[in-house]
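Re-run with default settings, no changes from the original entry. Doing this only to confirm the output is reproducible before filing.
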Amino acid sequence: MNKSTNNCLRNVSAARFNQLHTIGARFNYYPVLGIPDSVPVVTESEAWDLCGRPVVKISGRIGGVSICHLEPAGRDVIQAAQLAAENAELKYAIVTLQDRYMGWEGLSDTFEAALSIKTPATDAVLAEVRAQGVEMFVQKCNSKADQALAADIRDNWKLLGEHASDFAAQLRLEATELPTCPHCGAQIHSALDRFCSQCGGQLTDKGAGK
């Protein structure tokens, strides 16, 4: 498959990768970055850190490969974004109903319980979509900087691109802040968990501590 490698994962931690992609997710694997020749693969493990870099096991390869060589398959990306958008709309609908029916007997507790459900996977996908949009603007700034004839205009475009790049990184960082077990501090990957997988301690009704 001949295509650009611009959509390969970059600046993504192992924890965030695991939020966005389950085992068996489909990717295009680029053995050599910069050379647009890829192989379709699926993940066979969760991602982990190896010498400071996130890696994951994929089909057809021994050991872990750096996730920066992976490009999410188009359909998986679209479906993930659609699901995240739908979940965000549902959460907004709950807030709207809560405002309208606040004070009704029995409903307040129901709304509070619904709003307390954490959606880290949805938050991570939405953050990724937003960050990718910002990165498209970064590419536009870099292109304008390359085309500029005056040094001051070129520097202004570069500075704007740097600020935008920092903002994209901030969006991704905020989405990696997973809830933790109040007993041992281990990260909780699902709001549906009622017991910590590390220490076995019972979690709160809201799933985990801060």
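The radius of gyration is 21 Å. The first strand starts at residue 26 and ends at 29.
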